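Re: the multi-chain job from yesterday

Posting the exact lines I submitted so nobody has to dig through the queue logs.
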Amino acid sequence: MLERSHIQSTGFRNVGPVGERTGFELRLRQANYRGTRLSLIEGVTITVDGVLYPAAHNLVRIGSRVYTPAELDAATETRLAVGEYMTVIVPRPGGLAPGVHWVESAIGYRHPYFPPAHQSAVARDARHATIVMA
Amino acid sequence: MTGFRYGVSLYSYTDDLGTVMTLDDAFDHVADTGATGLEILGETSVPLYPEPPAAWLDHWFAQLERYQLEPTNFACWVDTRIQLDRKLTVAEGAEQIALDLRLAHRLGFKFIRPKFGVIDYNLTPDPIWEGAVERNLDLAQALGIIILPEIHAPTPIHHPVTEGYIAFIERTGTRNFGLMLDTGIFQDRPLTAWGGGDIEAIRKDAPDMVNGIKVPVEHLDDIIRYVPFIQAKFHHVDEDLHDHQIPWERIVPRLKALGYAGYLSSEYEGVRDPWVAIEQVRRQHALIRRLEAEWEAQHA
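And the result, structure tokens for all chains:
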């Protein structure tokens, strides 16, 4: 099972070749109470140590498939189940320094059954998380 | 005298499911309250929705048998604004409802609650609802399922949304469409915690949802004949079995006087700390059972 926080300890790591890291990735627990069509996920913004990484540039991996924000919008028949996680892939040349970071996440969900002004709702989380290896 | 039927919606255990609770655990918690009815959210509890594996189906029926629970309502969604710039058509909405009717039937449910996308603050459903439902009335009848739209705050009982659903029932003469009443409409004191999302966000954007829309329980009289299922929404019951938001001491006698004998399916929506919901559901059942017993003693 997953940690209660949206942000998971496991899975926070640098990506790309060692010495030439292209970014980092982070697992987020499905924060909605129902399995959610990917087309209802409007993007994921990540902040690390105060540096904002906007949703438009982040990719999301679910299972073995990687989605751009536009590809999420098109994925109307694929769902992210409750009890599963998405991996957010964040571009950042050089990756993050090993050690403990303050990480914030904001998952944009569209809830068609909410009043139109509130259909886009953001599920937020913030906690410390640790990069083990450069 | 016919009494209430007691059930639990697994929505109550939101955030516990998938982190500290399995579906098997949930069966145990629900059954131990003395409830006989199990309500699930299809997209939450059915693995690989809408096509669960055969082995899971076998286990589902074995667990129902083991715990002597009956499936009540199958919650589902018609995601009308399915993409940022695309809405479902009537045909697509009808297809979604048909899919959920068939899956709910396979799992043994008697009700489905399709949650439609809405077009305004008062939760007026997307206009496709009527055609999408009407195309499924024959299927619902063949499967023995009643389709339930939800009457949920901030929509009260006396409101065009509710009246629109009733007009549909009257026009079609169907027995396979009825109102699901969410007892959150009776909330008459403010929320201090909200298990449906960010309370600060709704405090700012939808204060009605925090303060309660305080529908008089007497309004039940006007619609109860259309209500085959009640979702017993609540947020906090304390150690003295006092509910801090929902006036059960007025709701229960009214339902009893009206002869309601359907399900009260608990829907806890309070603090989302681990395992809190398990105890909260038990307290709510103890409270409502006590009020029901008191009413019956007075009217024996």
